[in-house]
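Notebook, student rotation project (T.W.).
Task set for the rotation: take a protein with a known small-molecule partner, predict the structure of the complex, and write up what can be learned from the model alone. Partner molecule chosen: S-adenosylmethionine. Sequence and SMILES entered below by T.W., checked by me.
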Amino acid sequence: MDAKIAPPATEAVEDIEIHLLLEALYRRYHYDFRHYARASIKRRLRQARAQLGFTSFSAMQDTLLHGDALVGQLLDYLTVQVSELFRDPGYFRAIREKVVPHLRTYPSLKIWIAGCSQGEELYSFAILLHEEGLLDRTLLYATDINPAALEAAQAGVYPLDRIAAFTQNHQQAGGRTSLSDYYTTAYGRAVFDKKLRAQVVFSDHSLVTDAVFAECQFVSCRNVMIYFDRPLQDRAVGLFKDSLSRRGFLGLGSKETLRFSAHADAFSEFVREEKIYQRAER
Ligand SMILES: C[S@@+](CC[C@H](N)C(=O)[O-])C[C@H]1O[C@@H](n2cnc3c(N)ncnc32)[C@H](O)[C@@H]1O
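Predicted structure of the complex:
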């Protein structure tokens, strides 16, 4: 009797479908999630599949390829928009106390907020720079891949029920003024002063597929690289390295580090506990 031949080990069907869906998203729309940390992408895609009413990822892929109505929705699932004004106040306090004295020595400044989400991090920087008398000489670049988030960042409008937490963070970050100096309220929303974004360039930019575009004295990229696999993190840090001027600063999120980066040697720890690094001499 013939021995039963075991079938070759196969990839789970769902993994094949996810691979093909991400490939379709990239080849049709140039959004590249192929090297994001897979477990979190899988979780988000499962959520999208259920909530958008698809029976399979293959069905999603079909819809994605043959019309462009799904791509924006999918982006909203695949990109995490959690943020806050003066998120992790200790980070902004360290910038104010330890980085600003260096920034003051420059006649003009360029600051890049990479992965700015709906603008919370950007307004934090703008307010801090205003309080330190540096805003007028600073050009800020606020970049993200999610067009809806960029639009919200540009509008600078937040629900009023978020303001108490923002105000507390601002004070803990060493705020020198009252946060209410920077917004007006209308219809249950806080509208941030447009003077804060007078010198901001909002731009669609991907750390995965795009190149460096300016020489900056500070790059803040917080809570973005946690979603990337290691080679992708190296790519992003390589961009920051190439973008930073001599002795420029890089700020990361609280769960991020340069310790395992291929570019670690290009930086020194500046404020270790707040993940603020300085570009070593070129
Ligand atoms: C969790 S939010 C972080 C927001 C803010 N930086 C903070 O720390 O509060 C992550 C942001 O990264 C953006 N993002 C994801 N992939 C990106 C990429 N390849 N290039 C630029 N931004 C990206 C998302 O759209 C989202 O707005």
